[in-house]
Amino acid sequence: MNKLFLVLGLALILSNFLVSALKIASALNTIEYTPELVAIQDDYKGSAQIVNGGVASLFSDSSIDLASNAETQALRQYSSHKNLRIIYTVAEVFYRIVANKKSGISSPKDLKGKKIGTIPSTSAAYFVQKYLATVGLKESDYTVVPGSVCMSAPCGSGTLPYMLAHGSVDAVGMWEPTGELASEALGSDAVIFQNQSVYREIFNLHSTAEKLSDPTTRQNIVAFLRALNQAEKVFDSNPESVWSRVASALSMNATVLQSVWPIHSFKGTLVPDLLDVLVAEDQWVAKVDNRNAISKADLTNLIDSSVFNESLST
Ligand SMILES: *[C@@H]1O[C@H](CO)[C@@H](O)[C@H](O)[C@H]1NC(C)=O
Ligand SMILES: *[C@@H]1O[C@H](CO)[C@@H](O)[C@H](O)[C@H]1NC(C)=O
Ligand SMILES: *[C@@H]1O[C@H](CO)[C@@H](O)[C@H](O)[C@H]1NC(C)=O
């Protein structure tokens, strides 16, 4: 009899545990997502798991509660999923263009007529055209060549650092560590262009209106944001303590991770200028996706600051 109660009790505890587990979709090969990992390992009291994916996973798999991605993918999904919500900024990243001096490039204007490697339709492609527009170059002034990321040297064929080193592109515009590995592949022939005031990636955490209005799920999400607030403090002020864990989670060289760390910013917030960034960026995403741009009034509903605010209150 006692044994039966014990078994029933355990089953009940286990089912509560399973029901309340948070499922998060993130690109598992990005530095940006790693505060989520550390938040789960060090600070989150409930159960949570991260699976490979992004904002699109929220709409292809109803078991996903949270998803992280750059602002570009949020705009892409929001056009057909008006229940998408941005609730937190996990990281901001100051993208760079790495160019080959041997292609005759010493200033950004020299990229006219050149081949630039990136991943089309992503935040990196948006960055390239936005940055080059500031020096008067239109998208028709250069050729975008698609390539893939590299997490660790030696970078294989098909990756952007390899393509740059082998002359199939003259420059690479990408997030990290691909940018850094592209620069290391060129050595002293590398020239780097960056302007933090023109563009930075805003890598956010997202959910849906339905998930956020479910009391239990919302409570878990708020608790997860509290854990994320703690992890972000460590990433910002004591990064040495997480470098080896982050490097091993990403199968990255720890020295390379340290050299790209200052390009990233972990502030544990929801960035205040997000709406303006989204309004401007959707002009480009709409063109790429062959749809009409979303109005500012409509984009206002993509951002829900109430969850982050709740995570700050005691
Ligand atoms: C960065 O871009 C801003 C806006 O276009 C411009 O005013 C500024 O001079 C640029 N800074 C550098 C270092 O190029
Ligand atoms: C890590 O990268 C650095 C260059 O940033 C290199 O000197 C070092 O040999 C690499 N370490 C390993 C274990 O590959
Ligand atoms: C969250 O807090 C910010 C800053 O205090 C405020 O501007 C915003 O309106 C709040 N959001 C909600 C939904 O109350």
UniProtKB/TrEMBL annotation:
Keywords: Signal. The keyword Signal applies. Gene3D superfamilies: Periplasmic binding protein-like II (3.40.190.10). InterPro entries: SsuA/THI5. Residues 59-240 form the SsuA/THI5-like domain. Transmembrane segments: none annotated. Residues 1-21 form the signal peptide. PANTHER family: ALIPHATIC SULFONATES-BINDING PROTEIN-RELATED. This is Periplasmic binding protein-like II. It comes from Glonium stellatum. The lineage of its organism: Eukaryota, Fungi, Dikarya, Ascomycota, Pezizomycotina.
